[in-house]
Design a protein that fits this description.
Elements (H helix, E strand, L loop, with lengths): L2 H8 L1 H4 L27 H14 L7 E5 L5 H7 L4 E6 L2 H10 L6 E5 L11 E7 L7 H14 E12 L6 H6 L9 H10 L2 E9 L6 E2 L7 E8 L1
Parallel strand pairs: 1-2, 1-4, 2-3, 4-5
Antiparallel strand pairs: 5-8, 6-7, 6-8
Length: 230
Amino acid sequence: MGKIRKIFFNIYKIFFHSANLEGNGERVDIILKQYVDFDKLDMYQKSHYCRYEFAKKYITQNSVCGDFACGTGYGSIMLANKAKKVVGADINLKVINEVKKRYMMVKNVEFIHSDLLDLSYESVFDTIVSFETIEHFAENDIIKLLQIYHKALKSQGKIIFSTPYIQEQSVNARKLGFHLTFHINEEKITQWLSRANFTVESFKYQNYKTHLIQEVLEPKDFIIGIAQKN
């Protein structure tokens, strides 16, 4: 167990804030304890948890990592067990205020409230993780967002991101208001990344059946992209 997690769990009972931060299916909240019983997580939690476990493989001990659209912050804490520093950013002020309290003793994680399109970092991060994010933006803003990520990364930095794979637009999906861009596939992502001056390293896939992230998988519920800054 990493030093940061040990410190956190030693003071867990005193400082932990347990406000419900779930977001009606669009935001999950995993309560990090000394031991996370994966089998007891729900379908959405399992997929999110596995994505962060996957992202940790790309994190080095002395690196700086951005967790953009960090939600309830558990993923930022997971990444902080390897990274030197993690910055978690999210547009929901209530959630950010709660996770600042919840993880106040984890000193190498900083949570900020921000619209991702307003981020102004330049050559700060070795890696940017941004799960279930781009589909929340209109297509023109996806290009802008990726350009912001590009500027924020150091030379040869990487982004690791996920999005629903070829999600169909429907009346119900539009009414929920969660997603603005649909039918996202490899071709679209490659075009967007190219316009933002990234090179695709690989695409992988995930589904709700196994939650594993693999190069070959059926059915494909999510696509995970790994790309490097040119």
